[in-house]
Amino acid sequence: MASSAHKQHQLIPNLYGGATSAPPPTPSTHPNNLLSTSDAADALSRLLHRLPPNLSLPTRRSSSSAAATCPPSLSLSSQTPNDILSSVSQLGFAQLTDHSVPSELANSAESEALALFDLSRDQKESFFPMNWPLGYEGGGGDDNDEDDGGDGLAESFRLDSSCSTESSELALASLREFTRALEKLGLNIIDGLTKALGFENPVGNDPTRFWSVMWVSECPSGTRPGMSGGFYPFIVGLQYQIRCQKYSLLSDSGWVSVLPHVDSILVTVGDIAQVWSNGKLKKVRGRAITTVGDENVSRCITMSLLITLPTESRVAPLLGSSNKDQKEEDEEEGEGRVFNTFDFEDYAWRVYHERLHFKDPLDRYRVT
Predict the structure, then answer these.
(1) End-to-end alpha-carbon separation of the chain, Å?
(2) What is the mean pLDDT of residues 294-309?
(3) Residue 142, class by beta-carbon neighbours within 10 Å (0-12 exposed, 13-18 middle, 19+ buried)?
(4) Cα distance between residue 111 and residue 213, in whole Å
(5) Is the CB of residue 212 less than 8 Å from the CB of residue 307?
(6) What predicted TM-score, i.e. pTM, was given to this entire model?
(7) For residue range 96-152, what is the model confidence (pLDDT) as tens digits?
(8) Element (H, E) at 122
(9) Which residue of 91, 222, 253, 354 has the fewest C-beta atoms within 10 A of its own C-beta?
(10) What is the DSSP letter of 17?
(11) Which of 114, 115, 135 has its CA nearest to residue 125?
């Protein structure tokens, strides 16, 4: 299991010397060491030029009061694959306004999901045993994060497409129907994107070639964007907009705040889709997180359907060559590739547990 390979902790060296080291001289006692304004500017310039060109610096997080943008609209019934591509390619997200998921089903699924958080801790852990990435996870981090008890991590349930449990008392019929309805829409979007990009759809409707996770997460007061649970790689993600509320997204350009229309479905393009497209698609890292809820709603949760891959998968750009022999030759030589091939399970484990917010986890796989 990949978990055993990733639970090793590295010791951080003491970069600042021993406790008895003398403090550095102060400017008041060493006037000759003062730099002129020009010298300081030159020194800063030299330092910046020595930084690696691919260094990822933190971007300002969007606050809950930031102005939200309305995502571009996407309609599966009236748009061609090229229209679907243009709707999501530049931003990595869009809102699906024409779909077959009834609002009554979404509300019923939310009611069933809310009831899960009312279970006792023992029931949650018994009915939803941890079988990573599925299962129940309580707030405050996991067994490897003893020091993160107050880091704002939220309670979450991660369910398969059948929303199966270890209890005969929890049917979750509405949540299961809701999950499968979103899954069907997500597969149609993947099909449209791959056709527009000229690739052969690598998943199709074959359930052995893709995997779906319904991620139900609580939104406690004070939860920081991106800290309501770990990230997990996905192809596309879908969230039904039950009521008027903002979401915070970590896109390739930084944190953005979006406000989809009520009864629309927020569609996000994930990291796996970006690799498949050889960098042509923009992406959203992790799930969309609620930042402002309805004042009339006392409790807030998110229900995110992630269409992803089986853990044993390999991830590589799909170069779209129609000639099979040429395609295999291109793959061997890496011709025109932006990303190298990598193991999905290893990548998923690292992304989830390291919870990288500012550095793009795909950077290590980029062709240099």
Answers:
(1) 30
(2) 81
(3) middle
(4) 19
(5) yes
(6) 0.76
(7) 998 989 999 999 999 999 999 999 999 999 999 999 899 999 865 444 444 433 344
(8) helix 121-127
(9) 222
(10) -
(11) 135
